[in-house]
Design goal:
With about 325 residues, this protein is of the alpha/beta class. The chain has 3 domains: about 5-115, 2-Layer Sandwich (Nucleotidyltransferase, domain 5), CATH 3.30.420.10; about 125-195; about 200-330, no CATH class. About 55% of the residues lie in helices and about 15% in strands. It has a 5-stranded mixed sheet with strand order 3-2-1-4-5. Strands 6-7 form a two-stranded antiparallel sheet. α2 links the parallel β4 (about 55-60) and β5 (about 80-85). α10 crosses α12 (about 300-320). The longest helix is centred in the middle third of the chain and has 31 residues, at about 125-155. The termini are far apart.
Length: about 325
């Protein structure tokens, strides 16, 4: 894409820093704005005082809910925007000794200039998918709080008989009960949302036809793939999740075993691991595959990772074919 102005944006909770980089003159201009609708309008006015939107390429880190409002605002104005991971930006610009919001915005602007030909333009998810992703994030937060409460209960039980813990236990159990109720209601809301939207309901039905894929995995995969529009094929999604194996070697002295990368969506990866293990509880093609590979001398986790990739490939396959999964007849 040919652009003459590159805008880097560093977003925080209450504000965002923007830097305009003009390669023709090498000039860098910086300004800070409020992270709200009024700030967005002021930011757009500032940009238009320098160049037209058609000549600008905007780039910012994907910081979830903090960057979502500005991303939707720029998309509504038909601006060319790229949302990139902070990890990729940080490891693409070389050594940086200074760390400020202004410096980060300038770094992102220069990153956009250097890699403009490789960046993908951002397309916001449809409203129902964005709502689904928000509900899933809220559910994960509730589960994290529930786990914390359970840990606290187990820790306080060790004091029983030495100190009076009746008040603490009563309070913790009340919190646990309330959290379980909230998680139940959140699950019901996710189910209701999936039922109300025809496309989500259809995709959920196709995914749940695959052994090892339940409602939770299906909902999360739909949310993170933007309804299977964000990733072109299952291999790219496997790389994002962290199940794609990569070689590790250099010259003749370094030749380690092929392994998955630690750069991954670890929550989704953990869910797929549970799905892969669940497939082994009944006699099916996955169980046959698992026994065969273990007999060949493969490590347990290597086979589990292969099953995770099988689940991912089958999810993309049923969506592409638009037909439910057909279970193989075991001999």
């Amino acid at each position: 894409m040919k652009k003459s102005v590159f805008v880097g944006i560093d977003v925080s909770k209450s504000s965002f820093d923007a830097a305009i980089f003009e390669p023709s003159s090498g000039a860098l201009t910086h300004k800070q704005f409020k992270n709200n609708n009024r700030g967005f309008a002021t930011f757009l006015k500032w940009i238009r005082s320098v160049a037209s939107l058609q000549n600008c390429l905007f780039c910012m880190e994907d910081t979830g809910s903090y960057s979502y409002g500005l991303a939707c605002f720029l998309a509504s104005k038909k601006a060319d925007l790229c949302l990139e991971s902070a990890y990729r930006i940080k490891h693409s610009v070389g050594i940086k000794r200074k760390k400020t919001d202004k410096a980060d915005a300038e770094m992102i602007a220069q990153f956009a200039f250097r890699f403009a030909d490789k960046l993908k333009l951002y397309t916001p998810p449809v409203a129902v998918v964005a709502q689904l992703k928000t509900l899933i994030s809220f559910r994960l937060r509730l589960i994290k709080q529930k786990t914390s409460i359970i840990t606290a209960i187990e820790a306080h039980k060790q004091l029983d008989g030495y100190v009076d813990i009746s008040f603490m236990m009563r309070s913790l159990n009340q919190q646990l009960k309330a959290l379980k109720e909230q998680i139940k209601k959140c699950n019901e809301q996710i189910d209701r949302l999936m039922q109300q939207d025809q496309q989500l309901h259809h995709q959920n039905h196709l995914l749940c036809s695959i052994p090892g894929v339940g409602k939770v995995i299906a909902a999360q995969v739909i949310a993170y793939t933007y309804g299977f529009t964000k990733f072109k094929d299952w291999r790219k999604f496997a790389c994002y999740v962290g199940t794609a194996p990569f070689p590790h070697q250099s010259g003749t002295s370094i030749k380690k075993r092929t392994q998955v990368s630690s750069i991954a969506n670890k929550k989704l990866k953990a869910l797929l691991s549970m799905g892969a293990v669940n497939t082994l509880r009944t006699e099916n093609e996955y169980h046959v595959y698992y026994r065969r590979k273990i007999k060949e001398g493969k490590h347990h986790m290597v086979v589990i990772n292969a099953i995770r990739n099988k689940l991912i490939s089958r999810m993309f396959a049923v969506i592409r074919r638009d037909t439910p999964y057909v279970k193989l007849q075991l001999q």
